[in-house]
Write a structure and sequence with these properties.
mainly alpha; 5 helices; 44% helix; 0% strand
Length: 186
């Protein structure tokens, strides 16, 4: 067993003192950062064109599972990871560029965020059994998803967040509705 330290992505934690230090960092060559962004933009444009074409041929569910769409989603995900790794290695940043945020404040961009503010977050998976005969079942997937949810809740708590509730479900997202508790007087 190795005593090597790894980051949250399982990569060896070999931080460059300059990029991860307290001092300002000058003279960074950003050429490959921009090249990765250009490649990512091209992949996103290809995704849109492919998705429009696939959707013109198939219904939404079939389009979601189309190999061309899935391949481009994988490509975009890989490029996002490469950009993250480059920003981390060169600048020491832990860039959160792949999250999704909907603006529910309707024009109130400067609304203060304070203790007790909360929101809900969701992960979704489309899981398919392999094309070959195996002993895998779709029923077993919920246990894996539940284990992952427990790990995420634990990590959030370790980092200082308060996780009031979480759930795993099959077939439809688990709805965590705070308003329902309020109506019941809880």
């Amino acid at each position: 067993m190795s005593d090597d330290v790894h980051d949250e992505h399982g990569h060896p934690d070999e931080h460059d003192p300059a990029s991860h230090g307290r001092e300002p960092l000058a003279g960074v060559d950003s050429t490959d950062l921009h090249a990765t962004v250009d490649e990512l933009a091209a992949a996103l444009h290809a995704y849109v064109e492919t998705a429009v074409g696939v959707r013109a041929e198939f219904g939404a569910r079939e389009a979601d599972e189309d190999p061309r769409v899935l391949a481009l989603e994988s490509r975009v995900g890989g490029l996002n990871a490469r950009l993250y790794d480059l920003l981390h290695a060169r600048l020491g940043l832990h860039a959160d560029l792949t999250g999704m945020t909907w603006d529910d404040t309707q024009g109130d961009e400067d609304a203060p965020v304070g203790p007790g503010d909360h929101d809900t977050f969701h992960l979704g998976f489309v899981v398919e059994l392999p094309a070959t005969v195996s002993d895998l079942t779709l029923d077993a997937v919920i246990d894996i998803v539940d284990d992952g949810g427990a790990q995420i809740a634990h990590t959030l708590t370790e980092r200082g967040y308060v996780v009031g509730e979480w759930g795993a479900g099959r077939g439809a997202p688990v709805i965590l509705d705070d308003d329902e508790d309020d109506e019941d007087g809880l």
